[in-house]
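Researcher: We're teaching a course module on how sequence relates to structure. For the next exercise, students receive a sequence and then see the predicted structure as tokens, so they can try to spot secondary structure elements on their own. Here is the exercise chain.
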Amino acid sequence: MRTSWEKDAIYGFFDGAYYGWGHAHEDKLSFNLSAYGKNLLLDGGNYDYDTSAMRRMLCSTLGHNTALVDTFGQYRRRNFDTSEEEKRVRERIPSDLCWNFGEIYECAEGVYDFGYGNKEVEIWVDHHRKIIFFKKGLGI
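Model: And here is the predicted structure for the students to work with:
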């Protein structure tokens, strides 16, 4: 989502994609927003490939702009199947992300329904998120 490609553009990024299998974060439905050269909403960023607490946090839901449930993050890896993910990519099966473009606004919407928790706790709720991005300079 973007107003232009200029330096002072307002732009956003909405993650509604599959989990992946090589470099995956528990961050479905996260949203990043930048405006006028400044980051306003963003995830924690990248970190060294190590086993530190910082790396674990930055790959977790807590390190991204999306919801926790009862203090627990997303837990897609619980039911992760590499062969299923490879099939989606190979056959170009689209994600469940809905995207609408228009002159006045753009809208992205997705669902996370893979569960929250950890190895001991399972919380099953559906998280729906819709982002409506109004474009700059249209008097709205």
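Model: If you want an answer key for the exercise: The beta strands are 10-14, 31-35, 38-41, 98-101, 105-112, 116-117, 122-123, 127-134. The longest helix spans residues 82-90.
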